Amino acid sequence: MFILIIFLFSFPSLMRDTPPKLLQPHGSPTKEELRKERRREANRKCAQRKRKREQEAFQELEGSVAKLRTEVQLFHEELTRLHKENKELDEENNSIQEEISKMHGMELSAKFVISYAVDEV
Ligand SMILES: *[C@@H]1O[C@H](CO)[C@@H](O)[C@H](O)[C@H]1NC(C)=O
């Protein structure tokens, strides 16, 4: 029996959900034993609730992490899209600028031709 108790104490996880009667080898329990037993039971329940709360908090955090990962992924996709759009607008701007300088050049030539023609008259 002593060996059994030693064995149980070396593996607290075995004792955690084991009915406490196993730990009382003989006789009817004294008031002190009953009080200690109630205390143990209350502690056990308390620890159980604490584990449950911790598990719930952990699951909530996991949920938040998953949500944030999705958000980061979406922001990343949006950033890539905006980069691409910016590049396209930049190219469009460049070709418009090119068009403007061509027209400016043509305007200058036309002015030159006109002024030349006017001078000739
Ligand atoms: C468009 O191109 C011109 C000439 O290269 C540049 O000065 C201007 O800042 C550009 N506009 C934008 C919005 O990038």
Automatic annotation (TrEMBL):
Domain of life from the UniProt record: Eukaryota
Stretches the record annotates as Disordered: 16-53
SMART domains in the cross-refs: BRLZ
Keywords noted in UniProt: DNA-binding, Signal, Transcription, Transcription regulation
Compositional bias ranges of the Basic and acidic residues kind: 29-44
A molecular-function term among this protein's GO annotations: sequence-specific DNA binding
Coiled-coil region(s): none
Signal peptide: 1-16
Gene Ontology cellular component terms for the protein in this record: nucleus
SUPFAM superfamilies linked to this entry: Leucine zipper domain
Residues in BZIP domain copies: 33-96
PANTHER family assigned: G-BOX-BINDING FACTOR 2 (PTHR45967:SF38), G-BOX-BINDING FACTOR 3-RELATED (PTHR45967)
Protein name: BZIP domain-containing protein
Organism encoding this protein: Arachis hypogaea (Peanut)
